[in-house]
Each structure stands twice: as C-alpha cells, then as structure tokens.
Amino acid sequence: MKDKCQVIIIGAGMAGSSAAVHLYENGITDILLLEARDRVGGRMHSIPYKGKILDLGAQWITGVSPNNSVYNLATKLGIVKGDPRESEDETANDQKYYPLSSRGTPISTKAHKIAKSIFEKFIYNIDNYYLRKDRNGGSIKDFFDQSVPSCVEEIVDENLPTLKKEVYNILNGMLNVLRSYVGGEPDECSVDLFGTSIELPGGEMPVEGGVGQIVQSLVSFLPKDVVYLDSPVTKIDWSNPQNISVNIHDHEIKCNYVISTIPLGVLKSTHTTLFHPSLGEEKTLSIQRFNAGAVCKLFVEWDQPWWTPNFGGFLLSRGEEDYIGDWTDYVGDFNGVKNYSTLLLTWVVGKYSSIIDGIDEEEIIDGLMKLIWKYTGDPSIERASRIIRHKWTLDPYTLGGYSFPGLNSNPEDMNILASSLPSEEEPSLLFAGDAACPDYWSYMHGARTSGLIAAEKIVGISKN
C-alpha cells in the first residue's frame, strides 16, 4: 500500500464505492478505497446458500424509478434488465398473508380489512406529518397512541366489542412490523422528521442474485491496487487539512482529501478517538441526535416446510395479555422467502436487537417456536433446525442498522452530517453514507447519492 495519495475513501459500501468510481472516472485516479472487512458491500451482504443467494442485510431496491441512483446503476451494470414490473414475482398477488391470534385461531377477514385501512391511513399521516403546520413534536409511537385508538372507536358493527379488540390487536402487531420500516423503536423516532426522507415511486424490487453484486460489480471498475480489504482505519489526523494523515494500524498514509463513509453507529462509538482534532460541536451533536438504528434479520430454517407453497406470511396480533416482557414481544410476523421453500423470515428491531445478537441460535429457536406453536395452535409443527443471520449490532464496522432521526433531532442534522470540514468552501474531510443524505436518509440510494455528491465536490475543485 502506498504512503501518499490524493484521496482516501474509508468504507467500500455503496457510498464509498460510488465515490471511488466517480472520482476514478473523472480523472482523479490517485486514490485508495479502504475497507475494514474482508469483503466490499457494507450492509449489502449477499451470501450463497444452497445454490442460491440470501441477503443478510439490505435486500431491495426501494423506489424503482429513474430518480433512484441505485436502480440506474444496477440497470447500467446489467444486473437489472427490462421493465422492473416484469421482474416481480407473478405469484406474489396469490400469496396469502394472515393475521393470527394468540389463541391459535384465525382472525376475521373483516377485522383484518378494517385494521389494514386504519394502518394505511396512519402510515400516510406519519409520512406527511412534517408538512403539517400544527406539528408539535413527539415520536411515531406517540402519534400512534393519539390517532389510532380514536379510529378504532369509530367502528360501527353489531359484533362491536369482539371486532374492536381484534382490530386493535392486529394494529399492535402491525406496529411491531413498523419497527423494520423505521429501523428502530417507534418511540425513539421523531414524527416531525420521519417523512423528510423522500419515498420514491415504483415500489420495492428484490435483486436476483442479491444486492451485494451491485457493489461488487461497481468496484470491479477500479484497479486492484486501489481497493484494500482488511484495512480498518484507526486514526484520522486532519489538523493540517492540506495534508491529512490516515492510520491503518501502524501504517500511515498522507492525503489531500478523505471521504468518510463510516456508519453512524460506528461514528457514535469512535468519533472522539478516531478524529484529531474533534469534528466540532455542531457535527458531534448531530451524530448524537440522529439514531443509528438496530435491526436483527433472522432467516429461520426447517428440514421440511410446514406451510403451503402460496404462503405469504402471518402477522402476530397482540393484546395486552400477550406481552411477556422479553424479546419475543418484538417479533411482528413471519414471511415466506423467495426461492427457498424451507425458510421463513422474521425481524427483531429496536432495543432487543443487540440482545438477540448476543444469544445463541438454540435460544432464539426456542423463543420463535413458542410463538409459532401458540399462534398457529399447532404444537405438532416440527422445531426449526437453524437460524441464518448476521449480527449487525455487534459487528464492529456497523454497530447498528439504517439510520433515522431521533426525538431531539432537528431539520438541519442531515445537512450537518453531510457537511464537509473545515468548510464547504474548502473541503478536506468529507462525509457520505445513508445518514448523510438529506433527501434520502436511510435508503441505499441515499448512500450512493451522498457518495457521488462528496466525490463531485473534489472533482469540481480539481477542475477549477
């Protein structure tokens, strides 16, 4: 590895890889792309499993439209071909998704339909809450508690008490599923700012062969002496912004610019020791206020499927009596997995994610099977045989999931997280990543967009 270069990019995920290739394609070739792991991709982590591919992290291109820089890239690379609507599984509309009660009995179609309508209205309202003039702060959970019960009370039906209870229990289950949409606890996410990340049209599209191949294909455009794996950065000394020093263990590299795509969870944990001098009060406060998320994605495997081929999934409806005070309270649903007949997918998102990541597979299976036996009413279902996962909250190069605004965040935090130091006019230390994109924070295309913006700042300076 060289001792001096023009630009160092830290992190070979979507943001860092996009920045590196953009620099290289624009004539700035004296660069190094440093990745702490033994692979590129960051949270885009696709693994081979039984002849196919599983995405242990990100798994969709979200917002399939020309405004999506990742969709455009995947199309350019030949990874996505043709009309994206034709890429969707034609059987998806035939798959069944059921709410189940803890009594092991089905829930009425009427209750499900009403609950779904109320929840869709709730999602629309939190997506657009930032536009309201009467917004008064608080969390998504606060808004749920303020708005949803009144909708349930408006139900008119001859079987009113039973129907209302079913609807409310389904809505509690849907709130659990919402955690994976938020990336963490609904009571820790600002309802004022949640909708400020623009949701592109076009829906979600899985990538055949895994999303990880997008970054792998992108990085293949760079020479081998540019990309270095197993290279964790231990210190960034930018006390002289024209001659920044970056340390990888005992090896020091001098450069003119650094683009940091270090995940927010890692920044929260290491920024005080990693950067010299400090990042300053303004950026430090934004790092503290924004939430790094906590997501535990679990693929559960059986030797033989006990569900039908057209199974889409089932939701765990929750009454007050169903909460037992452990991590299983946070399991929202189980879903079928495309191309895998023996796998179901579930999530634990929020404060229990790090607990799940810290316990062994058998204990997780114990908890999940108790739920499945209880909610299906069928104790004869065979015990699952395996859990497939990546421990994102314990991964030292992630320490979290996808970011979202905390309760104390303000509208400027995303701009501050994306801002360069010592100034935008004379940038030397630049930042990118899913938390550093004001328009598309938390999204994969937000990470790519932020990387392109950071790289373009350097390209612009080099042309002047």
UniProtKB/TrEMBL annotation:
Signal peptide positions on this chain: none
Cross-referenced SUPFAM superfamilies: FAD-linked reductases, C-terminal domain, FAD/NAD(P)-binding domain
Pfam families: Amino_oxidase (PF01593)
Superkingdom of this protein's organism: Eukaryota
Entry's Gene Ontology molecular function annotations: polyamine oxidase activity
UniProt domain Amine oxidase: residue ranges: 14-458
InterPro entries membership: Amino_oxidase, FAD/NAD-bd_sf, Flavin_monoamine_oxidase
Protein name from the UniProt record: Polyamine oxidaselike [Tribolium castaneum]
UniProt organism field: Lepeophtheirus salmonis
